[in-house]
Amino acid sequence: MTATTASVRKVPRPRADALRNRERIVTAAQEMFVEHGPDVPLDEIARRAGVGNATVYRNFPDRDALVREVVCTVMDRTAEAAEQALAETGDAFAALEHFVHTAADERISALCPMVSSTFDQHHPDLEASRRRIEQLVEEVMGRAAAAGQLRPDVGVGDLLIVVAQLSRPPAGTDCVRGDRFVHRHLQLFLDGLRAPAHSTLPGPAVSIAELRDC
After folding, report:
1. Per-residue pLDDT tens for 53-84?
2. Which domain holds residue 77?
3. Any idea which residues the entry calls the DNA-binding region (predicted)?
């Protein structure tokens, strides 16, 4: 056995209970950031996760690290939903619909705007997750367009803007009541994306580059 091999084998693997605690913390943080905003006390997050404060700080040394992990986790799950949509071999527009509804369930649109000012938005992990989603959504929409099912005058930015707006609770309502309308209104929007278009949209399609410049 070489010294290199021996050293690799000595690297401890995270214990299963430690991984479960980390997952519980991230899930609890996501829920509370959506419900109460990014300034929710970390001890409240620990309480909902069913762990001690020390466990939270052992996994995430500061609030920024926890916020970044929550955002990247949600974005990665949303990207996985897009990958599943691309793997579907049936109706291309139905795959797009499935992705949009799944993304709304992740609450990515409600989460990201609230926490965007609390940490470095150009962190490599966040940039990688963002690029992955943008590329996959473009592929999902491109397949529906190639099948002649998606109106040609919409861009990825159009989709992301509307999903962000419609899957966020209306002002003055709590998250539970607002959630009742999310999928209904998203479906109304999706019906408007179908080709042939029944109206002419004002202005050009919104691209990812333009969306980032807003």
Report:
1. 999 999 999 888 898 888 888 888 889 989 98
2. 68-213
3. 41-60
